[in-house]
# Entry
Amino acid sequence: MFPFSFFSVLFIVSCSLFEQERVILWTDVPEFALYAAVFNASQTKYKVETHYFELTAKKLSSTVEQPDIVVGRWLKSASTRYLFKPLDWLLKDNSLDGSAFYPKLLELGVIDNEQYLLPVSFNVPALVFARDNSDLLTDYFTVNLEEAKELGKAYNAMSRGAYTRIGFSPDWDDDFLFVSAALFTADFREGEPLTWDAAALTRALEYDKAWIAEANTSIQAVDDFTFKYFFEPPVKLILQGRICFAYMNSAEIFTLDYDQQSNLDFRWIAEKERIPLSEDTVYYGLYQQGNIGKGAEVFTEWFFQIETQRRLLENNKRQQLNAILFGIAGGFSAMRNVTEEVFPRFYPSLLGHMPPDDFLTPPNILPQNWLTVKERVILPYMHEYIHAASAVDATEDTENANGAVSPPVLKIRSLEDRVADWYRINK
# Structure
């Protein structure tokens, strides 16, 4: 027969479990399942349940279900931005320290002068290269487009009329073409349904085409080199000395294996003191229609603490997850002290390599289906533009009625038509 004390303990535990407040968290960031597990193990009063969706913003705008917390990308689009509760009360009562965040990232979460969303993480574009080539670059933190072009050109080598080494070509990675467009302020942003500065985009793509012609002879010469050597991944080609640079973002760099990281160096891509952050910056909000209890508030306060994020990084290291997970929610923490002081303990190559915080330029507000439009419409257009022949030779100056030089007319469908067609088909 069990002693009375056993049943007393069992009853107390059962009541504790029964009374445990449940917090529903929706996210498209898988790491938050790990974070919720750490939180749940740290106390017994609240339990965070994580529900993963491929695109949380889309799920929010097409359901009557009511989560408590939402963490994801593109949450400030027109279809979702007013689905959240203002969070100013958390900042005003010092539950959270607004000054702990990168100011430009925090500002992006403001709607109608109120803080609706808190930034979680971000990624930074970079060029990587062999550590032995570090002395070639003039700045220890950043590299601009013109310097990359000149260094790539100087690195080139030919034999029998064909390249055996090419320092870099913009068309090797369509995401690099997009970054260069961002540096030229193409400014893709939510409109009706999408808008951008078409002239700036053309300037960027013409710059990339001229880069290839000036540094690497022609797009055909680059294509021949790419066909011959790019059966190997770019990092391996760098370490072999076949190419000088490859494009990566910060998450890609810091999930390379240890041996590769130890033999590589990197510089953040910048122009005129601007580093364009990846558009998939992660934000955090409390759902307006949710039954927000104390648990959601407690989890929010817990997550946005320096010590909590240090512990989460430590868990990744201890569980040997660093090979597949970078930083906090797949990127640098939006909390400045975490990124600048805690990250270098786990990623030693960041020492002396931190991106200048005043250079960090968040993306514009983008529609919830941005990633699909980018991958299926915008990047293919950029790639085709770089490879397209012109109806008028690009070396000839063609003047319009006002005497201004016009860009060459390309034999491809305009981006405006492609975007309009995509939205018409995918209503």
